Amino acid sequence: MDMSDKKGPITLKIILIGNSGVGKSSVMNRYVNHRFTNMYRATVGTDFLSKTISIDGDTVTLQIWDTAGTERFQSLGTPLYRGAHCCMLVFDVTSKASFSALDGWRKEFLIQGEPKDPSDFPFIVLGNKTDLSDREVSDKLSRQWCEEIRAEYFEGSAKEDLDVEKPFLRAAQRGLQQVTQLVLCLLLINTHAQKPIFFLCLTCLFFDDKRYITPYSTKNTHWKIQDISR
Ligand SMILES: Nc1nc2c(ncn2[C@@H]2O[C@H](COP(=O)(O)OP(=O)(O)OP(=O)(O)O)[C@@H](O)[C@H]2O)c(=O)[nH]1
Ligand SMILES: [Mg+2]
């Protein structure tokens, strides 16, 4: 079922956080605009870029929010993190400090963003600057931590255009899962003891938490889709 037929392209909010200078803006610019510069211009406030892509037959617009690493301790206000469908934690593989800081960034995201199910919220961890030789964070160490927090790990280089697309595609997929849950409802209709048992599979899509399916009758043989968007 193509969801774009129903409601137009889905917009997914993907937020990039991490220390200043790790390359959040560079990664975003590489992915969206296919550009890179060695010049460092710290992000002031928040930027965002959009990119429309196709995933598994669905058209989705990624709204990528690039935040300023320097503003971590300033009051950004909760609206920034709220409503994110996926959070990308970015660090620089040549900076152990930027890796260690991710735990704090993650916690802050969970507090400020208030995702509905914090234990199940998708985090993608991205180790950037793999083109540099003075690496301080091993692939093993980052993978270990990702396992602990149940995040997915990617690494690459915005500069060399190495594996920049993969983490965004995965973020989009995980974000899409946040929006859409495929629910298979198996209905057993057993009318007569001698008669065959009918199995009816219902495939229901949930959009933005605005629709859900509920049992209609007490025997659970009828279901209705409720729209709570209004
Ligand atoms: N060698 C190398 N340098 C990179 C890479 N990605 C970014 N840089 C450089 O690192 C510096 C910081 O990059 P930014 O993308 O501005 O970092 P940021 O995380 O957005 O920083 P804030 O906006 O201050 O939070 C710039 O000079 C970039 O050119 C990379 O993959 N390899
Ligand atoms: Mg920046």
Automatic annotation (TrEMBL):
Pfam families listed in its UniProt record: Ras
Q: Name one GO cellular component term.
A: phagocytic vesicle membrane
Cross-referenced SUPFAM superfamilies, in alphabetical order? P-loop containing nucleoside triphosphate hydrolases (SSF52540)
Q: Which GO terms describe its molecular function?
A: GTP binding; GTPase activity
Task: Give the primary localization class.
Answer: membrane
**InterPro entries recorded:** P-loop_NTPase, Small_GTP-bd, Small_GTPase
Q: Where does it reside?
A: Cytoplasmic vesicle, Phagosome membrane
Q: In what way does this protein cross or attach to the membrane?
A: Lipid-anchor
User: What keywords were assigned to this record?
Assistant: GTP-binding, Lipoprotein, Nucleotide-binding, Prenylation, Protein transport, Transport
- SMART domains the record matches: RAB (SM00175), RAN (SM00176), RAS (SM00173), RHO (SM00174)
Main role?
Answer: Controls vesicular trafficking from endosomes to the trans-Golgi network (TGN). Acts as a negative regulator of TLR9 signaling and can suppress TLR9-triggered TNFA, IL6, and IFNB production in macrophages by promoting TLR9 lysosomal degradation. Also negatively regulates TLR4 signaling in macrophages by promoting lysosomal degradation of TLR4. Promotes megakaryocytic differentiation by increasing NF-kappa-B-dependent IL6 production and subsequently enhancing the association of STAT3 with GATA1. Not involved in the regulation of the EGF- and EGFR degradation pathway.
Spell out the family assignment given in the record's similarity comment.
Belongs to the small GTPase superfamily. Rab family.
Task: Quote the NCBIfam families the UniProt record gives.
Answer: small_GTP
Which named protein is this? Ras-related protein Rab-7b
Q: What is the lineage of its organism?
A: Eukaryota, Metazoa, Chordata, Craniata, Vertebrata
